[in-house]
Amino acid sequence: MYAIPSIETEKTQSIIHQVNPHIQIKDLNVYVEDQHILKNINLEIPNNCITSIIGPSGCGKTTLLKTLNRLLDDSTEVKVTGSVLVNGEDIYGPDAEVTHIRKKMGLLSQKPFPLPMSIFDNIAYGPKIHGNRDKKSLQAIVERQLKNVGLWEEVKDRLDSSASKLSIGQQQRLCLARGLAVEPEIILGDESTSALDPISTQVIENLLIQLKQDYTIVLVTHILRQARRVSDYILFLYNGEVVEFGRSEDILLNPQNEITQQYVKGFIS
Amino acid sequence: MKKKAKNLLPVNYRLIKDLVIKNLSGVLLGICLLVIIAIVIGLSIKSEPLISTESLWNILSSSVWSPMKGNFGFLPFIMGTVWVTLISLVIAVPLCLAASVYLVEYAGNRLRNFVLPLVNVLAAIPPVLYGVWGVLFVVPLIGNYIAPLFGISTTGYSVFSGGIVLAVMIFPIMVSIMVEVLQTIPKELRSVSLSLGATKLETIQQVVLKKARPGIMAAIVLAVSRAFGETIAVLMVCGNIPKIPQSIFDAGYPLPALIANNFGEMMSIPLYDSALMFAALLLFIIILGFNLISRGILKRMEAKNI
Fold first, then answer.
1. Does B106 lie in the same domain as B229?
2. Which of A109, A162, A164 sits opposite B191 (nearest CB)?
């Protein structure tokens, strides 16, 4: 499989990046049915890095992730104030077009949800929706993305069979490939490995580490060790507020805030 | 050994209870099945005199129905049933599908919680009320307004009226099953499609409805079974003329109506009761066969799709 990059090289790389914000969140507040879920979030998520959102369950991690691709729009009784700038453009602005915004962000959900169609069509679905009707180009996209996630050799002889026949780890890689097929800039992962076995988890984690060269990645995770393994930056969220944000080694080894310390040490979870 | 037996005494009583219940429920199930088997046997024996006088093919394919002369052709009734059922499906399926998609995908919680119980109330209305509504409203509507639009003169008692009344009757069962089917589709699957940049319509068309197809088929199958057997409401608006309908404005005579209308006055005419029993047997076989076949198709669809 893939070599796991040692933490040291990861760290040095991330220092080179410096903070080059791909996503800027300004004064973001989210209310769901009169509950104040996210409170005054101000954040700059850097380019080509993996940023992990950690925090106890119910602290708003997933909500924050979903505000980034406006998936909350479809739930009723949700109010969002403030702004989220992607490449300087406000995705909650009046000119923002929601399909265009979502295309920019690949979502990798908690459990793999293959679409009810063949392996090929799962990946071709996105490009087709955005107007690609050329069979050859679709075939090329499918092959490239399956190779990208290391699934090509395993499925190249059965592209027409149903995606649900794959193992759950393969399904999750297929979902990643499907997200990449619409050429996003950002990958959002919502506890993307929580349904997977350790080996599949490792495969996905290594893929994400590879992919950060080309994409900005934001992960929600409740596994501290995972955050340690993959992230360059960590955001600690507690009760809907940003408690601490910084380099992952700073947060994990030398947290400034008392709550962060308790969480990192495992006293609260 | 002895000691063990002593210990088991109070337990034994509970075990016996267990055994009794197990066997009793088995027997009760057997009785239920026996009733069905008895119906089939009874109908077969009763319709035997008719089948022995004429070939099965002749009975099924002949369109002449004159019991006085001993002609029992069932084609008009079969066709009457088929017409009414098809018309009701053509009306009900698109309507119900649209209604359920709206309720699940677009409507707010408040509207959904208001409409769904209402739909279930509709299902509880006795069929004869639908029949009365058909006679008072649908039949005149078709006779006086719709048929003249096509240059046809009719009383309004027609397979079209039957189809409309039946469509309204199967509406509740179809909507409630379809809504349930659509609600079982995980929200995340919709999110997946939306987060790829698909619009809501594209998501519904290409993901939700595709995933729901086996369930939607099941809803249609159940509704068809209901439509086949529906008697009184259809009987009241169909016209009941034993001729094969040539257009939707012609009167028809579905199988259940035949049985209900003529049972009781049949004794004087030879073979008449046998013919009615044969009609009942036919209805039974059609519904059974339809259910078995559609179940097979459903299974294959599920294996292929999900």
1. yes
2. A109
Residue after which a domain boundary falls, among B13, B31, B53: B53
| Residue keyed to tokens 């790829």 | B196
Structure tokens at B68: 């006085």
For the beta carbon of residue B118, count every other beta carbon within 10 angstroms: 9
- For residue B79 the two structure tokens come to 């066709």
B58 inside domain? no
Q: How far B209 CA sits from the closest chain A CA (Å)?
A: 10
A187 lies within 8 A of chain B by CB: no
Both B105 and B191 in one domain: the answer is yes
**Residues of A (191-250) whose Cβ lies below 8 Å from B:** none
Which domain does B6 fall in, by range?
2-53
A108-157: pLDDT as tens digits: 988 899 999 999 999 999 999 999 999 999 999 999 999 988 899 999 99
Q: Do A182 and B197 touch (CB under 8 A)?
A: yes
Pairwise CB contact (< 8 Å): A76 & B108:
yes
- The amino acid at residue B299 is K
Distance from CA of A258 to the nearest CA of B (A): 36
CATH at B192: 1.10.3720.10
* Same domain membership, residue B69 and residue B42: no
Residue B175 lies in a domain: yes
Q: Cβ of B193 and A107 within 8 Å?
A: no
Q: Is A129 in the B-facing interface, judged by CB distances under 8 Å? A: yes
Interface test with A, best of B195, B202, B207 (most A CBs within 10 A): B195
Measured at the alpha carbon of residue A208, what is the angle toward residues A106 and A165, in degrees to the nearest 5?
70
**Option in B189, B191, B197 nearest A126 (CB):** B197
A 10 A CB-CB count for A200 gives: 19
Residue B187 counted as domain residue: yes
Tell me which DSSP letter residue A188 carries: E
Q: What residue spans of chain A are helical by DSSP H?
A: 7-17, 61-68, 98-104, 119-129, 135-148, 152-155, 168-180, 198-211, 224-230, 248-253, 258-265
Which residues on A lie below 8 Å from B103 (Cβ)? none
Taking only the tens place, the pLDDT of each residue in B133-165 is 999 999 999 999 999 999 888 899 999 999 999
Q: Does residue B22 share a domain with residue B76? A: no
- For residues B36 and B122, membership in a common domain is answered with no
List, in order of start, the domains of chain A with CATH numbers: 21-265 (3.40.50.300)
Judge if B10 and B101 occupy the same domain. no
Residue numbers in A near B200 (CB within 8 A): 74
pTM: 0.81
